[in-house]
Amino acid sequence: MQQPVSRRPFILTDTLAMLVFALALAADQFSKALVREGLRIGESVPAEGFLRLTHVTNSGAIFGLFPNQAIVMTVASVVGIVVLLYFYHAHAGGDWRVRTSMGLLLGGAVGNLIDRLVLGRVTDFLDVGAWPVFNLADSSIVTGVIILAVVYLFPNFLARRRETPQPPTEAAAPEIGDASTDASTDAVALSTDGAPSGDDD
To answer: Which stretches of the chain are DSSP H helices?
Structure first.
Protein backbone atom coordinates (compact mmCIF):
# COMPACT_ATOMS: atom_id res chain seq x y z
CA MET A 1 0.00 0.00 0.00
CA GLN A 2 1.42 3.36 -0.99
CA GLN A 3 2.08 5.74 1.89
CA PRO A 4 0.49 9.21 1.62
CA VAL A 5 2.99 11.92 0.74
CA SER A 6 3.16 14.69 3.36
CA ARG A 7 2.63 18.13 1.89
CA ARG A 8 5.30 20.76 2.37
CA PRO A 9 4.20 24.11 3.85
CA PHE A 10 3.45 26.83 1.28
CA ILE A 11 4.11 30.34 2.51
CA LEU A 12 1.31 31.99 0.51
CA THR A 13 -1.23 29.92 2.47
CA ASP A 14 0.40 30.70 5.82
CA THR A 15 -1.81 33.37 7.39
CA LEU A 16 0.64 34.29 10.14
CA ALA A 17 3.69 34.58 7.90
CA MET A 18 1.78 36.54 5.26
CA LEU A 19 0.30 38.91 7.85
CA VAL A 20 3.72 39.66 9.35
CA PHE A 21 5.18 40.05 5.85
CA ALA A 22 2.44 42.48 4.78
CA LEU A 23 2.73 44.58 7.94
CA ALA A 24 6.53 44.77 7.74
CA LEU A 25 6.47 45.68 4.04
CA ALA A 26 3.69 48.25 4.40
CA ALA A 27 5.32 49.97 7.40
CA ASP A 28 8.66 50.09 5.57
CA GLN A 29 7.33 51.53 2.32
CA PHE A 30 4.96 54.00 4.01
CA SER A 31 7.66 55.35 6.34
CA LYS A 32 10.13 55.76 3.46
CA ALA A 33 7.54 57.62 1.38
CA LEU A 34 6.89 60.03 4.26
CA VAL A 35 10.62 60.69 4.67
CA ARG A 36 11.15 61.31 0.96
CA GLU A 37 8.21 63.74 0.92
CA GLY A 38 9.04 65.53 4.16
CA LEU A 39 12.82 65.71 4.37
CA ARG A 40 15.50 66.76 1.94
CA ILE A 41 18.45 64.41 1.54
CA GLY A 42 20.83 65.07 4.42
CA GLU A 43 18.21 66.88 6.52
CA SER A 44 17.69 65.77 10.13
CA VAL A 45 14.82 66.25 12.58
CA PRO A 46 15.74 67.33 15.19
CA ALA A 47 18.97 68.92 14.05
CA GLU A 48 20.88 67.40 16.99
CA GLY A 49 20.31 64.61 19.43
CA PHE A 50 20.83 60.91 20.05
CA LEU A 51 17.69 59.82 18.17
CA ARG A 52 16.87 61.62 14.95
CA LEU A 53 15.21 61.22 11.56
CA THR A 54 17.86 61.76 8.91
CA HIS A 55 17.12 61.33 5.20
CA VAL A 56 19.99 59.52 3.50
CA THR A 57 20.26 57.09 0.60
CA ASN A 58 22.17 53.84 0.51
CA SER A 59 23.42 52.07 -2.61
CA GLY A 60 24.93 49.20 -0.61
CA ALA A 61 23.75 46.61 1.87
CA ILE A 62 22.05 46.81 5.25
CA PHE A 63 23.31 49.61 7.54
CA GLY A 64 25.26 51.14 4.65
CA LEU A 65 27.69 48.24 4.19
CA PHE A 66 29.32 47.74 0.76
CA PRO A 67 28.38 51.14 -0.72
CA ASN A 68 28.05 51.80 -4.45
CA GLN A 69 27.18 48.19 -5.20
CA ALA A 70 23.57 48.63 -6.28
CA ILE A 71 23.53 45.95 -8.99
CA VAL A 72 25.36 43.42 -6.84
CA MET A 73 23.07 44.05 -3.89
CA THR A 74 19.96 43.80 -6.08
CA VAL A 75 21.06 40.37 -7.29
CA ALA A 76 21.99 39.40 -3.73
CA SER A 77 18.54 40.48 -2.52
CA VAL A 78 16.80 38.29 -5.10
CA VAL A 79 19.01 35.32 -4.18
CA GLY A 80 18.36 35.97 -0.49
CA ILE A 81 14.59 35.96 -1.00
CA VAL A 82 14.80 32.65 -2.90
CA VAL A 83 16.88 31.15 -0.06
CA LEU A 84 14.34 32.35 2.51
CA LEU A 85 11.49 30.77 0.57
CA TYR A 86 13.37 27.49 0.39
CA PHE A 87 14.16 27.64 4.11
CA TYR A 88 10.50 28.18 4.91
CA HIS A 89 9.51 25.32 2.62
CA ALA A 90 11.99 22.99 4.33
CA HIS A 91 11.89 24.02 7.98
CA ALA A 92 8.95 26.24 8.93
CA GLY A 93 6.35 23.59 9.70
CA GLY A 94 4.03 24.63 12.50
CA ASP A 95 6.46 26.64 14.67
CA TRP A 96 4.91 30.09 14.95
CA ARG A 97 8.28 31.64 15.88
CA VAL A 98 9.91 30.46 12.65
CA ARG A 99 6.90 31.56 10.62
CA THR A 100 6.99 35.00 12.24
CA SER A 101 10.71 35.24 11.55
CA MET A 102 10.17 34.33 7.90
CA GLY A 103 7.52 37.04 7.57
CA LEU A 104 9.88 39.67 9.02
CA LEU A 105 12.84 38.57 6.89
CA LEU A 106 10.83 38.51 3.67
CA GLY A 107 9.14 41.82 4.44
CA GLY A 108 12.47 43.52 5.04
CA ALA A 109 14.18 41.95 2.04
CA VAL A 110 11.34 42.80 -0.35
CA GLY A 111 11.06 46.33 1.06
CA ASN A 112 14.70 47.14 0.31
CA LEU A 113 14.51 45.32 -3.04
CA ILE A 114 11.62 47.56 -4.14
CA ASP A 115 13.76 50.63 -3.38
CA ARG A 116 16.67 49.26 -5.42
CA LEU A 117 14.48 48.36 -8.40
CA VAL A 118 12.43 51.58 -8.43
CA LEU A 119 14.89 54.19 -7.17
CA GLY A 120 18.26 52.54 -7.65
CA ARG A 121 19.04 53.08 -3.96
CA VAL A 122 17.55 52.44 -0.53
CA THR A 123 16.03 55.17 1.62
CA ASP A 124 17.34 55.22 5.21
CA PHE A 125 16.17 57.56 7.95
CA LEU A 126 16.50 56.08 11.47
CA ASP A 127 19.54 57.81 13.00
CA VAL A 128 20.53 56.45 16.42
CA GLY A 129 23.75 57.79 17.94
CA ALA A 130 26.90 56.67 16.15
CA TRP A 131 25.11 53.70 14.53
CA PRO A 132 24.78 53.83 10.71
CA VAL A 133 21.43 55.23 9.54
CA PHE A 134 18.93 52.45 8.78
CA ASN A 135 15.26 51.86 8.05
CA LEU A 136 12.36 49.66 9.14
CA ALA A 137 13.24 46.98 6.58
CA ASP A 138 16.68 46.64 8.17
CA SER A 139 15.03 46.38 11.59
CA SER A 140 12.70 43.64 10.34
CA ILE A 141 15.63 41.66 8.97
CA VAL A 142 17.66 41.93 12.18
CA THR A 143 14.65 40.99 14.32
CA GLY A 144 13.94 37.97 12.13
CA VAL A 145 17.55 36.80 12.37
CA ILE A 146 17.51 37.16 16.16
CA ILE A 147 14.33 35.08 16.44
CA LEU A 148 15.83 32.33 14.27
CA ALA A 149 19.04 32.37 16.31
CA VAL A 150 17.13 31.95 19.58
CA VAL A 151 14.97 29.15 18.16
CA TYR A 152 17.81 27.10 16.68
CA LEU A 153 20.77 27.93 18.94
CA PHE A 154 18.89 27.85 22.24
CA PRO A 155 16.01 25.40 21.64
CA ASN A 156 15.55 24.58 25.34
CA PHE A 157 15.73 28.15 26.66
CA LEU A 158 12.08 29.10 26.12
CA ALA A 159 10.92 25.60 27.02
CA ARG A 160 12.54 25.89 30.46
CA ARG A 161 10.96 29.29 31.02
CA ARG A 162 7.52 27.89 30.25
CA GLU A 163 7.90 25.08 32.77
CA THR A 164 6.30 25.89 36.13
CA PRO A 165 7.40 23.96 39.21
CA GLN A 166 4.69 21.70 40.58
CA PRO A 167 3.99 21.93 44.35
CA PRO A 168 5.03 18.84 46.32
CA THR A 169 2.29 16.30 46.80
CA GLU A 170 1.21 16.10 50.43
CA ALA A 171 0.45 12.71 51.96
CA ALA A 172 -3.20 12.29 52.80
CA ALA A 173 -3.86 12.67 56.54
CA PRO A 174 -5.47 9.66 58.19
CA GLU A 175 -9.13 10.03 58.82
CA ILE A 176 -9.70 10.23 62.57
CA GLY A 177 -13.15 8.77 62.43
CA ASP A 178 -12.05 5.65 60.60
CA ALA A 179 -9.09 5.06 62.92
CA SER A 180 -11.22 5.30 66.07
CA THR A 181 -13.81 3.00 64.56
CA ASP A 182 -11.17 0.42 63.72
CA ALA A 183 -9.72 0.65 67.25
CA SER A 184 -13.16 0.21 68.83
CA THR A 185 -13.83 -2.81 66.63
CA ASP A 186 -10.52 -4.39 67.64
CA ALA A 187 -11.22 -3.77 71.35
CA VAL A 188 -14.65 -5.40 71.15
CA ALA A 189 -13.18 -8.42 69.39
CA LEU A 190 -10.51 -8.85 72.08
CA SER A 191 -13.00 -8.56 74.93
CA THR A 192 -15.26 -11.11 73.28
CA ASP A 193 -12.46 -13.59 72.83
CA GLY A 194 -11.32 -13.20 76.46
CA ALA A 195 -14.79 -13.57 78.09
CA PRO A 196 -15.48 -16.97 79.87
CA SER A 197 -17.91 -19.26 78.13
CA GLY A 198 -21.02 -20.61 79.90
CA ASP A 199 -20.27 -24.24 78.91
CA ASP A 200 -17.26 -24.34 81.23
CA ASP A 201 -19.39 -24.39 84.39
So the answer is: 15-38, 70-87, 96-119, 136-153, 157-162, 176-194
**pLDDT tens-place values along the chain, 201 residues long:** 455 545 556 788 889 999 999 999 999 999 999 999 999 999 999 988 999 999 999 876 665 566 666 677 788 888 989 988 888 888 766 788 989 999 999 999 999 999 999 998 899 999 999 888 999 999 999 999 999 999 988 877 656 655 555 666 655 555 555 555 555 555 555 555 555 555 554
Cα 9 from Cα 93, distance rounded (Å): 6
Query: Which residues are identified as catalytic?
Result: 124, 138
Domain boundaries, the chain: 16-162
